[in-house]
Amino acid sequence: MAVGLVVVIVFMIVSTVIGNTAICYIIYRVRRLHSPSCIFLVNLAINDILVALFLLPFSIATTASNYVVVSKTGCDIIGFFQHATSAVSVLTLLSVSMDRYLAILTPLKYKGWVTRNRTVLCIFFIWFYALLSACYPLLGWSHYYVFPGQWLCESNYHISVSFTYFKMTTIYFMPLVSIIFIYISILRVALRHSKQIAREVKALRQREMAAVLEPELGAQVSAAVISGQYCMRKPHSALRADIKTALTLASIVGVLFIAWTPYIVVNLWSSHTRNYGTELLQSIVSGLYYSTGVINPYLYGYLNRIIKREFKTIWTNTRRSFSQIRANKIQQAEITSRKSS
Known about the structure:
Blueprint: H1 2-29, H2 36-65, H3 72-105, H4 107-113, H5 116-134, E1 144-145, E2 154-155, H6 161-213, H7 218-273, H8 279-290, H9 292-303, H10 305-340
Antiparallel strand pairs: 1-2
Helix pairs in contact: 1-2, 1-9, 2-3, 2-5, 2-9, 3-4, 3-5, 3-6, 3-7, 6-7, 7-8, 7-9, 9-10
Membrane topology: Multi-pass membrane protein
Keywords: Cell membrane, G-protein coupled receptor, Membrane, Receptor, Transducer, Transmembrane, Transmembrane helix
Transmembrane segments: 6-28, 40-60, 80-98, 119-139, 171-191, 243-264, 284-303
């Protein structure tokens, strides 16, 4: 079992680093993606990379050795950054949901409210709060501990139930309720938008029929139809793009909360029953908890047309480069064999 878990963790580390690094590179390369929501996604990707590079390797050592290989101080450091990165993930997704909410429900004020500097400032406060809340167990409100089967150090749910509820509320329940409210509001706008398009298409057809039945007004009606068609479709296309982006981000949010829910439920159950559960159960829920770093970049790349195209370009160029290197090696070997013969 230990060998299998180590293989899974190594795969998660490599996939997380490659996928999130590609997302950061694509967003940096494509100017169309230099938007506030994509800046938040870069922050999320960097956070996932930090987890993969600096936290998950400790889980390999713990899993392979079947005992805690870090000291109390080391466990405090790991638990501190585990708490902080978890808070950053959720608060970043909450922020990007708010960004889409403002873009769709207040489109005329959005550009004035949401600027690049304010987005960077928001990310700064996200990290500040995440690091601050991670300090509480170090100051005596609970403490960090490794439960049997868990991959990393976690706050001890048996020492302080109050901190358990504080953490679950601020990192899970409140963001979840807020995000659900935001996307319900966005869904209502999307439904109104589709009904409005249907009404305008119906009105457009009636105008065209009127032009056919009254040819003497044909030129005027045609001009009105073309003008109205242009004026109506321009904002509709922009709103449709915003809604599509919001639904894409909603899928990422949904994956995170689906992956986190078993971990949260097991820990809440543990805090009340004082039963850690089996090591297999802890390993499964821990694996799901950290799997979002692997899933997010590929999910977003699959759902976003621009990023998907850039992913294909990078993959094609990488394959071409390896093929060229291989061809050069074969050619060099043939030249060497000819000279030796």
